[in-house]
Fold:
Amino acid sequence: MLFNSLTFVVFFIVVVVLFWAIRSWSWKKNMLLVASYVFYGAWNPPFALLLLFSTFIDYIAGAKMAAEERPFARRVWLVISLVANLGLLGFFKYGGFFVHNMEGFLVQMGVQYRAPAIDVILPVGISFYTFQTLSYTLDIYRRKLAPAASFRDFALYVAFFPQLVAGPIVRAIDFLPQCVTQTPPRAGRFAWGMFLMTLGLFQKVVLADTLLASSSDSVFGYGGKLAMLDAWTGVLGFSAQIFFDFSGYSTCAIGLAMCLGFYLNDNFRFPYAAVGFSDFWRRWHISLSTWLRDYLYIPMGGNRHGAWRTGLNLVVLMFLGGLWHGAAWTFVVWGLIHGFYLVVEHTLRTLFGDPRFFSTLLSKIAIGLLTYVAVCFAWVFFRAQDFGTAWRIVESMVGITGTADKLLSTRELLQVGIVTVALLTAHWLMRETSIEDVAARTPKWLIAGVWATMLFFIILTQGSANAFIYFQF
Amino acid sequence: MPWTGLAVAAYIIAAVVTIAWEFRVRSEGYAPTLNDTTDLWADRREAVRPDSLVVIGDSRPLFDIDFDALEAVLGKRPVQLAIAGSGAYPILDDLANDESFKGDVIISLVPAMFMTPGGYLEQASRDALKRYKSRGPAQRFSHHIAMFLEERIAFLQQEDLTLGMLLQDINIPNRPGALVPPRFPPYFQTADRERRVRMADECAIVGSPMQQSVVASWQRLFRPPAPPSWIPPEVFFEQLQKGMEARFGESAAAIAKIRARGGRVVWVRFPHTGWVKEMENVGTPRAPTWDRMIKETGAPGIHFEDHPELAGFDCPEWSHLSGPDSVEFSKRLAPHLKRAFEEQQPKS
Structure:
């Protein structure tokens, strides 16, 4: 069920009415659990069983690990959890990719092998809920977390519909305590949640789908050489589109959770105002980057074993981060490019420290713009369906194509240009603050006007929008 | 911050502006009608039974076929699976590979659309098929709510009045040589849940702004597109020719499958006039397209020009019949269809 669908509007109204009508906190949670499975099963009912299986395995593994004192037995339960979760993820997401590459490798070795065709549908959100449940068992293994008090609470943590299919990736340590006692419902908090949902939907259906998607789809779907202006417009359009699409989903999820009395952490903090790449990853998809940091980078040694090892860890981390996004080499290259960026930044910091020059506003803006341009270059590999397309667009961006086609209309050029300038300006003005702080300083009449305008524009799109990009991951 | 009060104010303002917008679009001549979406098509595809009478093709059968008129003569109510701006071969192929289907098929043949392999024309059919085969419970439910609303609210008009389409209407000159595709014609039809499409009354008036606007759209759309810049023109046209050649054999094979199960197929060339007819006659002359398709597939064909009672209709915007004419045309077409079906192998 998409947030930007009429089914969801009805679903949301029913859930909210029930949530506010039911008095018992326990029954509220029961209702939310059933609603979450309805939400997930509405896509493809059998996949709800997969979600239940994953939940069941991790609940048992968590409980057994917590009760067990012998290190070997604890490790066995952790391995069971890892194998079950990563096995499902591997089968559904990477099975075809692995077989395809194996075939290619064997052909290179002179062996003609044709594997039987595998037609597997990727369960929506499996990458997200797998990482979420893994954080639970890993935290219990490290004795940082006590197991969930009840299966129902744990199942609700895994399946909680606002963030189930596209994040934020919520940690059990943040969510489970909220299940124990209910935050007293307040009308103002509910209304703020509604504002966030409106803002998130506006980002998705108006900005990402209506103003930006056509330019990036045209450019990345074109088979010929593109004029430099068109290539840049397509790439800038996509970099804004993916931000509004994904940040829009996260904002909706946070707002929706708030309407139901739950608090989820921010997933984005104005990332296109990042000064440097480590700053970018502190601001972009925060729940994934902190997950990778806590469960991969630090256990691998982090930055504690010298410059070479730190660099290697960063590259491996970003390689896996790229692969998490999709079973294709273009995603891997996107991750490796970011790994390279991080290594270069880390090396420069090691060599030169943080000179005073870099703390001036002007130099921050210059480095910020450099970061943004480098991030945009990396997006080319993320968005392109193959390397041929990616190279063609990079060639066009640097202007070495010779005669090239002008693909986009003036209207599309203007839409992307205006939205990009507005996006960068907003991120720079808000980089040290939050939406809540800005709202608190804004006149009431302006908030009401902006809110109404967003609602009207959402209605004008008429639900002709696409699925969220991150659903495919 | 008093968020509850702000929420109430925002929703009231948005509601007032939305109601004002509804009045505005109604004053411009828009009326509530269903959007002809892939979901609506998927509903009709699901309505196909083993012995159904199915209509496939482009926009002409959508506008020109009246279900009551055909049902009165043929004894079966047609299921409308034609799609505007589409190449229908993928739909024919789908029916041919549906082992349960043993019914009758009316195929509209606009050669430049049916025979062009790949591209956005066939994509329209593939998108509809994909929706039919993959939509889940949530998408079905959304579609039913959408139909309920579209039948009551005029501004829910996806061909003209979405934010994206309104932005497209802002007239900003493009760069010289920019490869910007022409906009599809504006809203000029209504549709119901059976996908019975009728031309809007204003469009049937020659010289009216809507008719002029649609005619101008055809003049932009009906020109053959330039070959893509990354393929040498001679290679492109050779590939296109090969694809069109192959379409004869592919169609014959698909029709043979349907007929082998006891199904029956009839080709129909629907009326078109004026500049559109001139363009089609030049680009896709009758003998190497229509005549050859009838011969190679072995299915009978009804060409509107071969029958005086079908040839005298005028298409107000050169490509489709007006609502009243579509009823009369269907009444006159039905006996021809009955004869064409009956002259084929009797159904097993």
About this structure: Residues 233-260 of chain B form the longest helix (28 residues). The mean pLDDT of chain B is 92.
